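The methods section describes the discrete structure representation at length, but only in general terms. What matters is that the chain and its backbone geometry are given together, residue for residue. Nothing conveys this as quickly as seeing an actual entry. For illustration, here is how one protein appears when written out as sequence plus structure tokens:
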Amino acid sequence: MVQIKCIIQQTHSMDETGLFFDGKDYREFSPRVVSGAVSERQKMGSSRCGGHPYWILDYTMTAGTLYKTVSSRRAWRERPAATGHLYRPETYYWERADEQILPLKSAWIIFAGGEATGLGACIDTRDGLAIFDDPDGVLREALLSFHTTGEGSEMERFLAAQERLFRVLNLLLRAEATGSGHYNLCVNSRKQTAGNLQQRVEAFFLSHLPERLTVADAARHLNMSPSSLSHRYRREAGHSLMEALTIMRVEAVRRQLLLGLTLKEIAPQVGFYDEYHLSKVFKKHVGMSPGRFRRMFRA
């Protein structure tokens, strides 16, 4: 724990309001939030950050900061406000801000397991980062929620932070590519086109949840080829059709566990082969067994 805290202190100054999670109880989760904070720095020179085995999403609300990546010999580049920089593990980057633009307002999260989500495909390999423009402020709002995880036990606050992490990852994976390693999170520009197919697919899945569904079943329902549906859905949603179906089934299991149903009763209602299949998938996605989940949240 001490080692990770030192890493975080080296990554950003600590006049921040935020959260920190480490320990064996959390390491079975993937992806997993390690830390998140909101910062308003009153002074900042040139500092080196990163270089550790975690992903960093760094967001600035202040225009005019400077940065460079990979090597200190590179030229400084100016960074506009409302941008998120996603750095892959082991990447060094440098930041600098002149006194004229202070205070420097920013938010950031450090997390593990980003490679399992497909985030690696977003990274510009030369610079070791991906840049996300956020004109509508959707990423900013998601990040600002990290330092308010509510009351309850430490595990309950961790699970609340996990929910916020997945919300952020979903935004990143659904962003529109505008260049190599450069993405746009503008929601308004996509209102007429994005989400329509996703909503139709998910409505079909929800109404047929107990059945043994395939991509071909959804494609027939929507009068599309399986290949075309798979590619269009992944482009809109940021994940595959079958991943979406599994997530919906796991969410249905969560609800029914809290109603007191047994695993044997739940499994056929949500499309799992049996309670053993249900338990395996549930633990993979939630990070704990159905029994532990029920005990924790019903208590």
Residues 1-16, 189-195 have pLDDT under 50 and may be disordered. The CA atoms of residues 45 and 98 lie 7 Å apart.
